[in-house]
């Protein structure tokens, strides 16, 4: 019988800002409006790939859980051992799973700490030292702006020819710094500017997503669907008028409907009941507005036990990041984007020992590799799309990361 690793969860009396706690430049984060989970250190990690990656991830997580002796005096979703995960968009690329040595969580007026091993409760930093933001030089990614507009035009033609109904096309930007990039100040900047998004970091992928792919909490499932976007001007009166135009836009409503239907159909087999609002609301972020719908459901445990991995397998990729029909849209993406997405547009977040968790779609993000960062932005293309407007929308979607990096482009 192998010796078990002890895992302890205890309440914290104080509520330190989660994004101020990281002792090193390898943060694990899932934080929104000051609440969420952060972690550091690596107790165990692995990678998975292939068509069975969600099932393989569950198997690895469950095997790791068997090696742990858990003491949890808090008993909330997200207490005890937690798996931070960032799945690839495509099954052919690598997904990353990390179990941190230390996890700190906060929800409303409750906070807790989980740590692995026989050591005493870890001391928490009040804040890490101020870190200067490096400057960056920027270049086109896989395609120039002209080339990307041409690919969008090809996609529009495919839609008008009835080959597909909708496809999401992404583009990338490359940034290079003179020094290694530290994700911690980027996370803090994103959280300060976009408090209603989920600020995440895992294995170099960092961003602030407004789109919650899946929250599973004690047999209740929620998915926030975003599709349909318009840029803000900063003038409140003009932005209210733009929000109204977005809510009436037939192009954006069509794009949104595909995305909502995709999620609702994926959740339905697991639920005894679902709630899909008749019309979306307009979600206001710092630089853009989105059409948004919260789809909810009550999980039915029969004939099978349903956990986060079960739902992920059916939910990803949704029409919000791929298109409709899924397989045909994925083939168009493969043919037109010309780039590996990596973990951009894949599920990112955390899963606890009970199988509950929160995962968003990895949007408004960049992949850090030493002194290089690759940013991503995607747009939903439907019959009424226009290549120039889609390019402008993609530029607006780069803005959160560019601003958090202290750069304009």
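Q: What amino acid sequence fits the structure above?
A:
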């Amino acid at each position: 019988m192998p010796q078990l690793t002890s895992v302890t969860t205890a309440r914290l009396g104080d509520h330190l800002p989660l994004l101020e706690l990281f002792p090193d430049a390898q943060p694990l984060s899932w934080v929104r409006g000051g609440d969420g989970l952060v972690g550091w250190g690596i107790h165990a990690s692995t990678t998975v790939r292939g068509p069975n990656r969600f099932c393989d991830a569950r198997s690895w997580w469950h095997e790791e859980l068997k090696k742990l002796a858990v003491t949890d005096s808090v008993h909330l979703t997200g207490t005890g051992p937690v798996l931070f995960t960032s799945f690839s968009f495509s099954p052919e690329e690598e997904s990353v799973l990390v179990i941190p040595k230390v996890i700190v969580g906060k929800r409303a007026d409750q906070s807790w700490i989980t740590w692995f091993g026989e050591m005493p409760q870890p001391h928490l930093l009040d804040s890490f030292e101020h870190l200067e933001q490096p400057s960056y030089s920027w270049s086109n990614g896989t395609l120039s702006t002209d080339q990307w507009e041409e690919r969008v035009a090809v996609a529009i033609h495919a839609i008008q020819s009835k080959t597909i109904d909708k496809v999401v096309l992404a583009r990338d930007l490359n940034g290079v710094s003179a020094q290694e990039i530290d994700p911690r100040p980027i996370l803090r900047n994103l959280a300060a500017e976009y408090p209603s998004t989920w600020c995440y970091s895992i294995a170099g992928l960092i961003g602030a997503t407004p789109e919650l792919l899946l929250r599973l909490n004690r047999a209740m499932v929620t998915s926030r669907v975003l599709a349909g976007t318009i840029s803000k001007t900063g003038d409140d009166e003009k932005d209210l008028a733009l929000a109204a135009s977005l809510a009436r836009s037939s192009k954006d409503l069509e794009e949104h409907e595909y995305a909502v239907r995709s999620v609702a159909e994926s959740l339905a087999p697991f639920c005894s009941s679902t709630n899909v609002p008749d019309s979306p609301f307009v979600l206001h972020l710092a630089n853009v507005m989105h059409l948004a719908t919260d789809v909810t459901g009550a999980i039915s445990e029969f004939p099978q036990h349903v956990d986060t991995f079960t739902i992920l397998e059916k939910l990803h990729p949704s029409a919000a990041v791929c298109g409709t029909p899924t397989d045909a849209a994925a083939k168009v993406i493969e043919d037109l984007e010309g780039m590996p997405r990596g973990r951009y547009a894949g599920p990112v977040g955390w899963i606890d020992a009970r199988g509950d968790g929160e995962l968003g779609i990895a949007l408004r993000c960049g992949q850090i590799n030493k002194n290089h960062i690759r940013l991503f932005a995607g747009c939903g293309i439907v019959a009424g799309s226009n290549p120039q407007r889609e390019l402008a929308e993609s530029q607006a979607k780069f803005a959160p990361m560019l601003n958090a990096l202290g750069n304009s482009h």
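Q: And what stands out in the fold?
A: The chain has eight helices and 23 strands.
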